[in-house]
Design goal:
With about 120 residues, this protein is mainly α. It has four helices and no strands. Helix 2 packs across helix 3 (about 70-95). The two termini are about 15 Å apart.
Length: about 120
């Protein structure tokens, strides 16, 4: 049996809010971990990829706009803009966080991967 909860708006909405919360944590509050090259970028790509995938699945399964072929691409664009906006939020409003072009690139790449996975998903 397929998970019906994916057709609910809640997973996508909660994930999008979680991204906001994670990205506005002040830098000094972030846990120190082992130094893994590009881990920050991998996390950004994962966060935004899952976000796009969840929103696409919501509209594919439960939304009333599931038949619009351009909707998934619009979700990809909006997620990418959300990533860009969050970098400016970090730069101007979050203590010890900075604007990073690499994070924007990771957000866009992750969003594109989420979009491609959703487009290729059957059903």
């Amino acid at each position: 049996m397929k998970a019906k909860w994916l057709s609910s708006i809640w997973p996508a909405l909660i994930w999008s809010m979680a991204i906001f919360i994670l990205l506005v944590i002040p830098g000094r509050e972030l846990p120190e971990g082992p130094e893994v090259p590009s881990l920050d970028k991998i996390i950004h790509a994962f966060l935004f990829g899952v976000q796009v995938w969840l929103w696409c699945i919501y509209y594919k399964k439960g939304g009333k706009f599931s038949s619009l072929p351009w909707l998934f691409f619009l979700i990809f664009l909006l997620s990418s803009l959300y990533g860009i906006a969050m970098e400016y939020v970090q730069k101007y409003f979050v203590i010890n966080r900075a604007f990073e072009l690499g994070d924007i690139i990771a957000d866009i790449v992750g969003s594109a991967i989420g979009w491609l996975l959703a487009v290729r998903r059957k059903g």
